[in-house]
Amino acid sequence: MKRRIWWGTWVMLLTLLTGMSFASPASAEGLQEKIVYSKAVGDMGGREVFIANPDGTGEQQLTQTPSLDETHNQADEPVLSPDGKKIAYVSDWNGGSYEIWVMNVDGSDKVQITHNGMRNVEPVWSPDGSKILFSSACMGTDFEHCSGGDTSSDLWVYDINTNTFTNLTNTPDVYEESADWSPDGTKIVYSAYWKPGQFASNQWDLFIANADGTNPQPLMIDNKHEYHPKWTANDTIFFIRDDTVTSPNYQFGIYQFNLTTKTLSPLYSRNGWITRMAVNPNGNQIAFTSPSDGTYTMDLANPSPVQVLPAGSAIGDWGYAKQ
Ligand SMILES: [Ca+2]
Ligand SMILES: [Ca+2]
């Protein structure tokens, strides 16, 4: 009798769970879970943007970049828009400087967004899809006519509806890179490099600020380098940390910081570089790139990496595509 009651409860639970998965917004809108990434192709070593299933199958090449020379023929750092229809990415083919571009998820209709000849990199869509946040060597407030170079970087936001660019940090003495939005779009997290003698010296640290760049606060200050934070829906920030004690014995780790409990947990450690990371839409799997070895995915409940892309690949994003 007791056994039968348990079975009944189990069936009910199963029905509930099955119903939930069918009711998820992704399947309702015809979205498919995909990874987007770049890969070195051809003899010149230029990079192109690709899309594939999260296990690496079903690969499609989305860019065919005209080659200027050995170094200027790149398409890299792709990110999927929240509605799954667009991809923002970085390319240097039109003039040799890195600029932000947007294309349809099938590779059609490529549009250049930035034109100022600065280093405009690491785009990321706002959760409502109306803005693109990126890092730029452009200093000041006039994006089209700015000074700069490789001496610093600021975070800029592009408003798609108004076609305007706004400098969120405006800090010539501090590098700001690899930003991400909070799931509700009200805050940003990013990696900042404070030059020696400043707030923290000679290290990259993670900061959280309001979405307009005001009130930047360190998430943690330490003597390691933290990069590529990803802010997920379950109030967790994942990031890469350089744990190298002495070069050339590089040791990199992937960590998670729980914003509710304020606890830092190591997830994975690797002998060698980890340069890029993405988190799946459910927040329970990670993709990361070791440039010499390839791109791996990893289940957070069972953190043993599975290789899905070859050496020379670089993960850009893990999200939904409407194809
Ligand atoms: Ca700056
Ligand atoms: Ca640090």
UniProtKB/TrEMBL annotation:
Signal sequence coordinates:
1-28
**Top-level division of the source organism's lineage:** Bacteria
The alphabetized UniProt keywords are: Signal
Note whether Disulfide bond occurs among the keywords. Answer: no
Q: Which Pfam families match?
A: PD40
InterPro entries, alphabetically? 6-blade_b-propeller_TolB-like (IPR011042), WD40 (IPR011659)
Family the UniProt entry places it in? Belongs to the TolB family.
Protein name, UniProt field: Uncharacterized protein
Q: Could you tell me which species this protein originates from?
A: Polycladomyces abyssicola
